[in-house]
Amino acid sequence: MSSPVVLLDPVEFLQPNRRLFIDTNVFMDTEPRRAGGLKRLFERGQTTILANNNPIVVPTKVVGELTKQSQIDPSGESEERAQAIKKAGAALTFLKSASRVGLVRKDLGDDTNPYADDLFLQLFERFAGTYEMCLLTHDITIKLRIRLLAHRLAKRLLVGVLTKDGDLEVDTDDSLFDRGHRKYARHAARVADGTGNFKDESEVAALKPLLDEFGKIFGLKTSAVKLGPRTTRSSAPSPSTARWPAATPAAPVNPFSARARLKPSDTPLAFSALPSEGERVEWASADKTGTLVLGALLGEGGEGTVYDGDRSTVVKIFDRDHLTRHRKEKIELLVGRNLRAKGLCIPTAVVRNSAGEFVGYVMPKASGREFQRTIFNKRKFEREFPTWKKTDLVDICISFLEKVQYLHSMNVILGDINPKNLMVDEKKNVFIIDADSWQLEGYPCPVGTPMFTSPAMLGKAYSDDLRAMEDELFAVATMLFMIVMTGQFPYIRTGTDGDMVQLIKEGNFAFQYENRNNKDQPEGDWKYMWSHIHKPVKDLFWHSFHREGKRYKKRPTATEWLEAFKAYKSYLRNGRMCFDPMSNDVYPIRNKAFKQDAPIQDCPTCGRKDAIAGIWNDDNEEYFVPRQCNKCRDQQPAPLSTARPPSTTRTAASRPTSQPTATCKDCHTSFPTAQLKYGRCPACTTKANTLDPNRLCTDCRQPFITYDHIAWFTAKYLDIPKSHSAIKQVCPAAGRPTPSPTAKSRSQSQPGFWTRLWKWFAGN
């Protein structure tokens, strides 16, 4: 029988054309059989590291996680957990010393997506053509992902762990496949018996497609390990008390079919009567039956009426137009699978009238209020959640994505994702309702909302077509954008009539991105909100929505979004990376500060905290600091009128004893109103009309632009012109252009992460 692992010398990845990375779990490993392996690795490799100037890479995210773990109080923890916490602290001390002597590089990822797994995958994919790379980690999921990446790219990318002798232990394909299945079974079992959480559900959702792809590519059969979680049943309602099971996790034995064909057209169901408040109905869950009395009317929607069931459930009774065969069969499928997850209002029992006819279903009770009436309405949002910050909105996105990821792993497509089907409470728990409209097993989602409908689905009848996953992911991306932008539609832009269907078809995402300055970017505070979004999330938004984006046709999955938003949350909590305090404001009033050294100060006029940030000027490579915040500048009152009233006679008693005064908008000094011109005192007026001697026309090399013009362009966040012709003036040297003086552009003076990383990889 062949060995399940291969042993290699990790020192080979310290050569100039190779790179070695270490993940967090390696430093916190408490397994006795691997004790001392890291120490042995550095002992064996230190000479090679220093000779090749090729330190081992420990990304910033790993250092941050070690710091977080080391601060946990070990008292009350298990012995193994307490030991791991202690090892995290020891690792930080070691890394500090090792980096000082050049054995470790631990600043990689400082200004990028701090989610370590995502960063490792980006690095391996981007530089696979240049370097052979190896990651030390115990995480089975990342091992599977990098093994698949290596196969796809046909490059040598290894993932393994260290032995106590410092050797590199790499799983064979079949061993890794088997270990992946065992991990899947562990998480699935916890979900099934109700002890799991969304972390377990996320692992199940992530591992299933990975294992399917892994087995297909490497020709491996399913492991002997039982993959499906064991079947458990929550206590069903008692006929006498009509109590209903809470929405505790209990995953189905297996997902719904992903290849089911479209069912025949829906048809109405016959019924004798629809029950109402106070009437008794029959219910049937997956394994029990009973009766209950419909409680108080809670609300009426487009498809039916909702009544109180008990303190944890509600009952939905369909109206006559929506009582159809598809809905009945779909509800029976969901109830029969006993599908449960916190926050998902999935049917727990079928409801029939006194004649035994299907009329509706029981579902867990959701709490909170609709997105449409809270997050997407500024006035109500500020009233309901006055203390919330951007990180709270990111938490909502994460809660939403965890549930979407779980449903997608079960081959369920929500279909009609919209702000009326999502609710949120004060604890940031998201609830998804209207499960009867979900698409599963060939039953289409018969309803939809235009602004959440993908370009491919526009113009089609929702009830006559099955949505593809790409259609669903368009709606997911739209919802995420509208959460962080508190209700703004991604395709809104200036100069349009608001036809959302046409805007979606055009695919013109107008928000400014990198060097793309779209003249149609929405006015108002939206541009400030967009400016402060974490760069990796902003990248996904732009590439998903713009017709020229890399993810426009193959949109990010719920798992990708979840990783990005978890990184966003870490970014907002890391003051060193999120250096602009206004980035955590829900409604920022200015653009994000350019970089860490940008001056940030309170507005002297209104006192708004951190309301002014220096604006970088490429020409003189320094910051321009506005005198007022944007709000005060926009609300600047017009100069007080000095015109006399129409009366032709004025008595001595009516003459003012003193002249009216006003404040100069530039120097903020009080002057007689009559001396002000366009809100400026004489001195400031003179200065405003003076040519800046330091700004020379690129053609004639003479001053050409006034301080007033410069202030206007700066206030609008526009590039300052560099010649007479740029401001429509006749240049004295017209026809004799001279070379423009050398001036680094922003992108040149501030190279991006990948540029700096490439330079480091190349030895610079």
Secondary-structure map:
Elements lengths: L4 E4 L9 E5 L1 H4 L9 H16 L3 E2 L2 H11 L8 H22 L3 E2 L10 H12 L4 E5 L3 H14 L3 E6 L5 E4 L1 H20 L5 H21 L61 E5 L4 E5 L3 E4 L3 E5 L4 E6 L6 H12 L12 E4 L5 E7 L4 E2 L7 H7 L5 H20 L12 E3 L5 E3 L36 H16 L15 H7 L19 H7 L2 H11 L12 H16 L26 E2 L10 E2 L1 E3 L4 E3 L5 H5 L26 E3 L6 E3 L9 H7 L18 H9 L30 H4 L3 H9 L3
Parallel strand pairs: 2-5, 3-4, 5-6
Antiparallel strand pairs: 1-7, 6-7, 8-9, 8-13, 10-11, 11-12, 12-14, 13-14, 15-16, 16-17, 18-19, 20-21, 22-23
Outline:
This protein has 764 residues and is an alpha+beta fold. A hairpin with a 4-residue loop joins strand 8 (280-284) and strand 9.
List its salient traits:
single chain; 764 residues; alpha+beta; Rossmann fold; Phosphorylase Kinase, domain 1; 4 domains; seven-stranded antiparallel β-sheet; five-stranded mixed β-sheet; 21 helices; 12% strand; disordered C terminus
Describe this structure in words.
- The chain is an alpha+beta fold and 764 residues long.
- The strands form 7 sheets. The chain has a 7-stranded antiparallel sheet with strand order 9-8-13-14-12-11-10. A 5-stranded mixed sheet has the order 1-7-6-5-2.
- It is globular and about 90 Å long.
- 37% of the residues are buried.
- Residues 110-115, 223-253, 638-658 and 735-764 have low confidence and may be disordered.
